Amino acid sequence: MGKFEDIITATKLSELLHKKEDDKAKTTILWVLAIVGAIAAVAGIAYAVYCFFTPDYLEDFEEDFEDDFDDDEFFGDEDEV
Questions:
Q1: Distances in Å between the alpha carbon of 2 and those of 6, 8, 40, 51, 56?
Q2: Which ranges of the chain does DSSP label H, i.e. alpha helix?
Q3: How far is it, in rounded angstroms, from Cα 1 to Cα 3?
Q4: What is the CA radius of gyration of the chain?
Q5: CA-to-CA distance for 55 and 63, rounded, in angstroms?
Q6: How confident is the prediction along the chain (81 residues), in pLDDT tens digits per residue?
Q7: CA 67/CA 59 separation, integer angstroms
Q8: d(CA 11, CA 3)
Q9: pTM for the whole thing?
């Protein structure tokens, strides 16, 4: 019976060691994904803040020409057919 108990004990010890290795691999993968997610979140927030505070120069450019074009100034009554 001594050998049988030794085999059972060795099997249980082996299972515990493999379980710790699997848990370590899962923990490592979880930490890597957490770090990548945190970096992506910080980058997204930084981009949103940048877009919010950067002035939109194109809107100012388009507004300058809206008042200059008036149909009455360019097309008089004599030009109509």
A1: 6, 10, 57, 73, 82
A2: 2-53, 57-66, 71-74
A3: 6
A4: 36
A5: 14
A6: 577 777 777 777 777 777 766 677 788 999 999 999 999 999 999 999 999 998 777 766 665 555 555 555 555 556 555
A7: 14
A8: 12
A9: 0.48
